[in-house]
Amino acid sequence: MNIYSHISIPKTLVSSQTSKSSNLSQSQCIIKFNSGGFFNVLNRNGGEQKKLIFSDSKKWGSCGKLGFRVGFSAVDGFSSDNSDFIKKRKVVDHITLLKAKEGLSDEDEKDMLDHLYTSQYQMGGIIAISLGRLRNQNPDGYTHAVYMRFQGKEDLAKFYENTFYLGVLKDHVMPYSHELRYVDYEAEVEDDILPIFRKGQEFNYGLEFMLLISVVESAHGEPIEDALLEHANLARECPSLIVQFTQGSNFNLSSKEYSHAVVIRFRSSEAFEMFVGNSEYREMWTSKFAPIVQKTLAIDFTIDPVGTELM
């Protein structure tokens, strides 16, 4: 038996096979359910695609929303213009953790951060950057963090070998720090200039949250991927709190202390507190991450609009 329904679905569809995601447009579409657990999406231009409903599809969401949770096969990569899905693009996100020397003056800190920030204008490859002093102490003793985005792994490789950046580290970072740690991972973002380059009003302020994870050996593969998928689902359900999030597996061979990383730009520190304090987030962490995590590092810093004092 087929059941037809006209509904508007702005939900995110997440694949149980590929862990990739796409967003349904706000436009109305026709959903045809059948007894086999599948449904067909009839979009505006007449196309039809078969979807499989998850068994737990009756309730989905951490921000007081209900909706269908669905999986899809190889149908990624649609344009966001006049289609049912938003196209994604792969990027490479890079994290640098610093341990500043004790007694670092405000002037020396500004010199270090200014040179790190303005390096994007002196060399190619960096398409987004944020950095700052960590708000809270952490067990590993890191004091500052730098986030950068590159279009691909080749650009990241050139960045590590760039003589200008090596000079910045030598003259303006290492005199004030005694340890650096790097984490690199590949992620997907919406294929549009603002989310790719992290530009626009939404990215001018907020809080940058970084979660680094090391899992037990037996958890590599499906267990950690399933946990990250659940984490992503919760993040997608809270656009009023989150501007953008990315996550992935660390491929930096020289820094394997952490196997995975998550970066979330929250709209404010209050939004961050609301998200991590949510009961569904705590339940997700207890059930999905706690059994497989060996070590974690959760850090964050505030984002302020770039002023005229930067070099």
Automatic annotation (TrEMBL):
Gene3D superfamilies: 3.30.70.100. Residues 92-185, 207-301 form the Stress-response A/B barrel domain. PROSITE patterns: S_R_A_B_BARREL (PS51502). InterPro entries: Dabb, Dimeric_a/b-barrel, HS1/DABB1-like. Homodimer. This is Stress-response A/B barrel domain-containing protein.
